[in-house]
Fold Transcriptional regulator.
Amino acid sequence: MLSHDSIWRAIDALAERHRLSPSGLARRAGLDPTSFNKSKRQSTDGRDRWPSTESIAKILHATGASVDQFLALMEPNAAGSEREDASAAPGIPLIGFAQAGAGGFFDDGGFPVGQGWDTIEFPTPERRQGGTYALEVQGDSMLPLYRDGDVLIVDPSAQVRRNDRVVVKTRGGEVMAKVLARQTPRGIELVSLNPDHPNRNFEMNDVEWIARIIWASQ
């Protein structure tokens, strides 16, 4: 049945199918990243707000989905039939790289804390460690490896080794995804994923935390 809830359910399910958040799906389709936010689904007076046919056409084009496939995703159990049992794939916190540099989202060890996180389903059947979270790529600074809207799963408890892909947060508030070239008690050397961006070196006193990327939605 065509309803406000069923259309938004189909949009959410289409994003999940492509391992994207709703905002990542919007960006991939060339829309405003906030187009599908939950806060946009009702007007200020509480009335239901519908997505435009143009925005639906754009996400279908961006994902290669057909109209029939989109209609099938409106069914209440459509998204659930493609996922593992919830106990095997628990939700994990998600935040964008741009927001991750702000204070209040991580503790000193790089584990997620505080409010303002979205949630996505853990994308693989393996059991995750406590503290695992997701970062959504924003912009083109990580091309060609990661695209705008891709989701990176980060495990701050995993051992970090040379040549691992890692996320680093500096005490100055920068958050970046790089390849760990070398780490000593005094500092780290990082190789950029995008050849147009410089490699970076930091003294350990300038690093707030470093965590390994364990999965990406490529």
